[in-house]
Amino acid sequence: MPVLYLLIAAAAVAIAIFALQNPDQVTIRFLGWQVERAPLAAVILLSGAVGAIIVSLIGFVQRWKLRSKIRQLEARVRNLEVARPEPAVPKPE
Fold first, then answer.
1. Rounded CA gap, 69 and 71, in Å?
2. What's the CA gap between 92 and 90, in Å, rounded?
3. Percent of the chain having pLDDT more than 90?
4. What is the DSSP string of the chain?
5. What is the pLDDT of residues 17-39, one digit of tens each?
6. CA 48, CA 42: separation in Å to the nearest integer?
7. Residue 91: pLDDT above 80?
8. N-terminal to C-terminal alpha carbon distance within the chain
């Protein structure tokens, strides 16, 4: 767990340095919207965050489909095990 906190702190420092080194103001135009004088670092970080959210949602859907398939196959295995007769064990003589 301490390693996770160190990684989070390192990422926060890297983001702060990135923001300080990219103080430029830009104009954003998207689907008829226009934002004047948005900080470049904020635009880049927001774009990355939106991309990460989209990728996470796609991954969630894929995991959900795989878990559903696993449940289906496990049920099939249980049904096949119930339907299969136990092998006859020969009695020692």
1. 5
2. 6
3. 31
4. -HHHHHHHHHHHHHHHHHHHH---EEEEEETTEEEEEEEHHHHHHHHHHHHHHHHHHHHHHHHHHHHHHHHHHHHHHHHHHHHSPPPPPPPP-
5. 888 888 889 898 889 889 888 88
6. 10
7. no
8. 61
CA distance 15 to 9: 10
- Residue closest to 22 by CA, chosen among 44, 54, 51, 50: 44
Q: Answer for the pair 46, 28: CB distance below 8 angstroms, yes or no.
A: no
Tokens of 50: 């939106």
Residues β-bridged to residue 33? 30
Interatomic CA distance for residues 70 and 82, integer angstroms: 18
Q: Domain residue spans in the chain?
A: 2-83
* CA of residue 48 relative to chain centroid, distance: 14
For residues 69 and 48, what is the distance between their CA atoms, to the nearest angstrom?
32
